[in-house]
Design brief:
By secondary structure, this protein is an alpha+beta fold. It has six helices and nine strands, in the order ββαββαββββαβααα. α2 packs across α3.
């Protein structure tokens, strides 16, 4: 099962697993928009924030960051007893899980992309969050597959729009080139040479043609 919480900062999904075994599923079936929270150097729940598409870690407001951090601190056996702890957070895609790691353990592909914040005990926020707590049994695998398909469709549409824009630019450049060219003004249509005249009539006709011309 997964516990879901309602943020007071808008339409954001905040969730966590019930135990270390469910945490393994959350690690495996996260989404690109997910941000992982954990108490630094202590055992704690794995809390996730599902950001809105296009957001970065720097876009997380202080209020939203406090909600997630306070929640993960409150769900740490040792951390909840301390006045303050450090909480680390990073994008889900930065989580690294290897076969030799025990359940709940995690590493990082890029440690430099992990942020760290100090959090004090904040019972009012935790109590407010717990009042919104809902237990659900989502199909994490299917949700991940559906999101991956959406991303592929978004990329496909983006490529289509880019190709369309490139074709429009090429057409525009071609039209501008034609407008600047004098080739369309000076053409050979309707002009005749002496050779052409000789091919149709005798030499006198050619001379008469030249006299008319001058």
């Amino acid at each position: 099962m997964v516990f879901f919480f309602t943020s007071t900062c808008g339409e954001y999904t905040i969730y966590m697993g019930k135990d270390k075994y469910e945490n393994e599923d959350l690690i495996k079936y996260g989404l690109p928009e997910d941000v992982w929270f954990h108490v630094d150097d202590l055992s704690s729940a794995h809390v996730y924030l599902r950001m809105k598409s296009g957001m970065t870690l720097d876009d997380i407001s202080e209020e939203l960051l406090l909600e997630c951090s306070a929640l993960v601190k409150a769900n740490s056996i040792a951390g909840c007893k301390k006045n303050n702890v450090y909480v680390v957070y990073t994008r889900w895609k930065n989580l690294k899980k290897t076969a030799d790691m025990v359940d709940g353990a995690i590493g990082f592909h890029r440690p430099e992309n992990v942020k760290r914040v100090q959090v004090e005990k904040n019972n009012p926020i935790v109590n407010k969050m717990n009042k919104t707590k809902v237990e659900r049994h989502p199909d994490l695998y299917q949700i991940q597959q559906d999101r991956q398909r959406e991303i592929q469709m978004e990329k496909k549409e983006s490529r289509r729009q880019l190709e369309k824009q490139m074709k429009l630019e090429q057409l525009k450049n071609k039209q501008e080139k034609e407008e600047k060219s004098y080739d369309r003004i000076f053409t050979t249509d309707g002009m005749k040479s002496n050779t052409e005249v000789e091919a149709s009539v005798d030499n006198s006709a050619a001379e008469a043609y030249e006299d008319d011309f001058f």
